[in-house]
């Protein structure tokens, strides 16, 4: 992966807290390593289950969640539905091999910020993520 890194946040704001929810352990390692290297990101956790995701979301209040739809236990849709009812300002980027147009529309309807096909739109995912990282972080609870 040749992903350009962002410079540190010039405003001095805290980094974005990011949670990675991915069932594939090789992908967890690769994607987690790349995300952890972004200067504007603090990787606060990695999990492969819907229950683990919800537990970490409650405890860590991440600004960003990178979410696969296929999980070891539960689904990404379970996470989206539960998160929607929590009324947090958390942005959710679905990154999945199941990202056909109808599924993307369903993800967006369930509250995802954006949805990307892992195989075809990986670069677009990082471009969109880096656009978000250039903005000052807002607390997951909706405050700065």
Walkthrough of the structure:
- The protein has five helices and five strands.
- A five-stranded parallel β-sheet has the order 2-1-3-4-5, with helices on both faces.
- The protein has helices at about 25-35, 50-60, 75-85, 100-110, 120-135, and strands at about 15-20, 40-45, 65, 90-95, 115.
Briefly say what this structure is:
With 144 residues, the protein is of the alpha/beta class.
Domain count, please report it: 1
**Rg value:** 14 Å
The 3D shape can be described as globular
Question: Which architecture per CATH?
Answer: 3-Layer(aba) Sandwich
Keywords, please?
Rossmann fold, 144 residues, disordered N terminus, five-stranded parallel β-sheet, globular
Task: Show the helix and strand layout.
Layout (H helix, E strand, L loop, with lengths): L15 E6 L3 H13 L3 E7 L2 H11 L3 E4 L8 H11 L4 E6 L4 H9 L4 E4 L4 H12 L11
Parallel strand pairs: 1-2, 1-3, 3-4, 4-5
């Amino acid at each position: 992966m040749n992903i350009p890194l962002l410079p540190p946040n010039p405003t001095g704001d805290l980094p974005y807290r990011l949670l990675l929810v991915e069932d594939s352990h090789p992908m967890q390692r690769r994607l987690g390593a790349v995300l952890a290297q972004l200067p504007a990101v603090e990787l606060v956790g990695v999990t492969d289950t819907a229950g683990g995701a919800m537990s970490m979301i409650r405890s860590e209040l991440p600004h960003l969640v990178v979410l696969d739809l296929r999980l070891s236990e539960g689904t990404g849709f379970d996470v989206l539905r539960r998160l929607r009812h929590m009324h947090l300002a958390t942005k959710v980027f679905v990154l999945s091999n199941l990202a056909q147009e109808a599924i993307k529309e369903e993800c967006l309807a369930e509250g995802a910020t954006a949805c990307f096909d892992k195989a075809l739109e990986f670069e677009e995912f990082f471009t969109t993520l880096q656009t978000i990282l250039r903005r000052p972080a807002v607390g997951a609870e909706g405050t700065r």
